[in-house]
Every structure is written in structure tokens, then in C-alpha cells.
């Protein structure tokens, strides 16, 4: 991966994965001091962290960069035993702030392996600990889970929580007798659909690019 200058400022680009051309919108990885993603609306709008390390690109930049042209989305995930997985969606768009940066994701590609965790979040408005836009009656998913995201609320806040609290080499995946697909571990970094149970990833990258065809 390398740097590139865009209208939103410096961004982290991946020029090798599946043809390249990807802009990283969220990077999660082990570092000496983990980035704090329990931030407010203004910070998620502008961007969080260092684009060369753990960071969130920014909601306004995501809206500007995905409007007016079709984009696709990809997630790359690695575990603590050098295993990896990925998934792609053939549409990705973030609405303007007037629509609370509503998320649109399209078709999940059939050769993906990470699981379609984003289907649960499609069409949701963005929420932060200081801005409750989920559909949870009498609750606040972003405050409960210490991060900003397109939380749902009905029958569960998330299936993916990539801005959750980073877990340093937690060892074996958490053991639980709960089998519901809506089981939640709380304010931690997870991608529930991978391996059929919740697991703490070592790295997670969300990235997007203009459609190639």
C-alpha cells in the first residue's frame, strides 16, 4: 500500500489487491498505541487518526468520493494465526450529511469468503456516541458500543463492528452457547459472519474503488 493525494487529503491506497485502485476508508491493525474510535459526529465527519496507521477516512470525504459514479467495496481481514479472508460488494455509496450519511451497499460477490455482514447495515444512517440515528427503540447503539458506525438496532445493533475496541492477541475466539446470528460481544472489533462465530481480527481494512466495468 502507498500514499496518494486526493481532494480529501492524503489517503492510503492499495495498488495490488485484485487489480488495485483501492482507497482505504478504515484501517485497523496492531500498533503501539491504538487509535480511539469512540469519537463524536464532527470527528467522524472530518476523519480520525493517521492515514498511514489506524484511521477513518471521514464521512464527508466518503460522500464526495462515492457520489456521481459507481463504486465497489472490499474488506480484508487477517487473524492471529496468519489466516485471512475477504469480501466484496458491487455497489458502495454514502449519502450526504442531510441524509445522515446513509449507507448503500449492493450485491455481495459469490466468491467472497468473509460473509455478508454489511447486509445487516445496508440503508442505515450513521450514528456516533453523541448522535443517535439507529432504529433501536429506547437505546443508543453507538453509545453502547463505543464507536461510530451504521448501526441498525432492530434485532441487534450490528453484525460487523469494525470501529470497535481493538483486542491485542486475544487467543482463541470467544466461546459462547449463543447461536443466534445477532449475538453481540459489545464494544469490540468484530466481523461476526467470519467462521460462523464472533472472532477478534488482527487486522481489518475496508476500502473502495470506482467500478472497473
Automatic annotation (TrEMBL):
Report the superkingdom from the record: Eukaryota
Please report the stretch or stretches of sequence annotated as the Fibrinogen C-terminal domain.
1-212
Instruction: Output the InterPro entries linked to this UniProt entry.
Output: Fibrinogen-like_C, Fibrinogen_a/b/g_C_1, Fibrinogen_a/b/g_C_dom, Fibrinogen_C-term_domain
Protein name, UniProt field: Fibrinogen C-terminal domain-containing protein
Q: Which Gene3D superfamilies match?
A: Gamma Fibrinogen, chain A, domain 1
Q: Which GO terms describe its cellular component?
A: extracellular space
What Pfam families does UniProt report for this protein, alphabetically?
Fibrinogen_C (PF00147)
Taxonomic source organism: Scylla paramamosain
PANTHER family, A to Z? FIBRINOGEN/TENASCIN/ANGIOPOEITIN (PTHR19143)
Amino acid at each position: 500500500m502507498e500514499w496518494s493525494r486526493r481532494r480529501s487529503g492524503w489517503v492510503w491506497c492499495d495498488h495490488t489487491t485484485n487489480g488495485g485502485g483501492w482507497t482505504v476508508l478504515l484501517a485497523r491493525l496492531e500498533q503501539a498505541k491504538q487509535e480511539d474510535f469512540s469519537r463524536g459526529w464532527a470527528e467522524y465527519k472530518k476523519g480520525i487518526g493517521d492515514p498511514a496507521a489506524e484511521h477513518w477516512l471521514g464521512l464527508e470525504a466518503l460522500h464526495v468520493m462515492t457520489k456521481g459514479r459507481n463504486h465497489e467495496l472490499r474488506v480484508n481481514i487477517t487473524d492471529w494465526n496468519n489466516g485471512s479472508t475477504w469480501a466484496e460488494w458491487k455497489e458502495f455509496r454514502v449519502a450526504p450529511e442531510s441524509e445522515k450519511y446513509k449507507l448503500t451497499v449492493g450485491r455481495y460477490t459469490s466468491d467472497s469468503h468473509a460473509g455478508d455482514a454489511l447486509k445487516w447495515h445496508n440503508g442505515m444512517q450513521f450514528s456516533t456516541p453523541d448522535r443517535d440515528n439507529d432504529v433501536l427503540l429506547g437505546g443508543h447503539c453507538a453509545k453502547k458500543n463505543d464507536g461510530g458506525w451504521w448501526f441498525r438496532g432492530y434485532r441487534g445493533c450490528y453484525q460487523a463492528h469494525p470501529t470497535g475496541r481493538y483486542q491485542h492477541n486475544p487467543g482463541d475466539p470467544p466461546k459462547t452457547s449463543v447461536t443466534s446470528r445477532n449475538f453481540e460481544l459489545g464494544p469490540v472489533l468484530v466481523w461476526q459472519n467470519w467462521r460462523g462465530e464472533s472472532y477478534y481480527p488482527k487486522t481489518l481494512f475496508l476500502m473502495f474503488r470506482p467500478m472497473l466495468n
